[in-house]
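Retry 2 of 3 after timeout on previous attempt. Resubmitting structure tokens to design endpoint.
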């Protein structure tokens, strides 16, 4: 799913339930208008919309955006190619959690543990 080294320059995702579009923009180094465009292009990217049509992204949305960013900006995929790649991964996964995602979550948990122990 996510290449662990590809998003190393991006900040750690905080332990929150919902993120605003501005927060996701900062976390993923992508402008808000690009995020809104990607919602149209990638059917699996569906943030929760609340009062006033405000978007609230969950952690899995942020991880998906980082994956899309990696495919488009670092691996050179077109939007159509990235969409096919994501659809292919979701079909081939069969509900299994990818190893790269587990490694990323583990690294973030270790950082939290280190912060709590100091």
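Retry 2 succeeded. Sequence:
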């Amino acid at each position: 799913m996510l290449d662990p080294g590809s998003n190393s320059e991006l900040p750690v995702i905080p332990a929150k339930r919902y993120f605003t579009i501005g927060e996701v923009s900062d976390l993923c180094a992508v402008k808000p208008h690009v995020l809104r465009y990607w919602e149209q292009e990638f059917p699996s990217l569906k943030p929760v919309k609340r009062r006033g049509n405000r978007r609230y992204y969950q952690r899995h949305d942020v991880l998906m955006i980082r994956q899309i960013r990696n495919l488009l900006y670092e691996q050179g995929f077109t939007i159509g190619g990235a969409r096919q790649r994501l659809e292919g991964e979701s079909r081939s996964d069969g509900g299994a959690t990818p190893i790269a995602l587990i490694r990323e979550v583990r690294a973030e948990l270790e950082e939290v543990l280190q912060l709590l122990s100091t």
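Attempt log closed. Residues 21-117 form a domain with the Multidrug-efflux Transporter Regulator; Chain: A; Domain 2 fold (CATH 1.10.1660.10).
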